[in-house]
Amino acid sequence: MNMYNKSPKKYRPIYFISFLAGVCVMCLSGCEKVIDVDLNDANPQIVIEGNLSFDDAALEVKVTKTGSYFGKEAAETVDDVYVFLENEAGKKVDAFPLGQGLYKIEFYPVRRNEEYTLHVETETKNYVAKSKIPAPVAIDSLSYSYQQEVKFFDGGYRILLYFSDPPDEKNYYRAKVYKNGELQNETSDIIVFDDSGLDGRVIQVTLRGQVFEHGDTARVEMFSIDENAWVYFSTFREMANTNPGSPAPSNPVSNFSNGALGYFSAWSVSEKQIIIGE
Which domain of life does the UniProt lineage start with (predicted)? Predict the structure, then answer.
């Protein structure tokens, strides 16, 4: 079948990012760290997943404990911690426990380019992470292209994402893809990228992962995230793609203090939808 590419209406040069396997990870510095534990046999450690949404004006935190990192058993939830959020002015707001390891703050007045500090306190340790909400970057358009089956990749339609990167600033992104309303949530669907070498340009990203068929609906969310979140998801995917027969990899880079696994990410999001064949 001939390749079909539904192109966007753009007149500036378009620069391309294509994800094949794994993600290149930049040099790390400052407060970022890799926690050196054997994830396959380690004693349980606390895992914190914190998301602060500019668009929803809400914080959601999930707290669990590790077992065997690559095991199929469900993670143990943690329901006896104290969670609160602090802004740059020092104002603190407590998160409400919902059970099953979930904690939430709703209707929180989130401001762009302001740094927020997430605190998770247990009886023995306090865990702290910081994140700043970047200004949102809008998706310009979506298109699709048919690609033949090749080694490691099924044949089918893949989604192409176009956006205009803001000039004169470093930007980090994450994309989530929904197929007919269902989030594509395999390891291969973790897509993160940045504007290295492409600052201020119109960028095309080929979204590798699940393929689409004629008539499918694709919805894409593009998150503007900070560097800490970008590094976490980059190293998470790199770790998960490690050969199962190789030694246990290091865990993803965390921005939490005191040895907690996980991440705290403040973000804004843009989304668009397209139907294959229309």
Answer: Bacteria
Could you give the CA distance from residue 219 to residue 176 in angstroms, rounded to a whole number? 8
Both structure tokens of 196: 């290295």
The two three-digit tokens of residue 136, written as one number: 């949102």
Residues 97 and 115: their CA atoms lie apart, in Å, by: 23
Residue 104 burial by Cβ neighbours in a 10 Å radius (0-12, 13-18, 19+): middle
Looking up tokens 């997943």 gives 49
Instruction: Give the CA distances from residue 76 to residues 49, 63, 69, 129, 133, in Å, rounded to whole numbers and listed in that order.
Output: 14, 9, 12, 22, 30
pLDDT digits (tens, 9 = 90+) for 112-122: 989 999 999 99
Quick check: 140 and 164 in contact, CB under 8 A? yes
pTM attached to this predicted model: 0.80
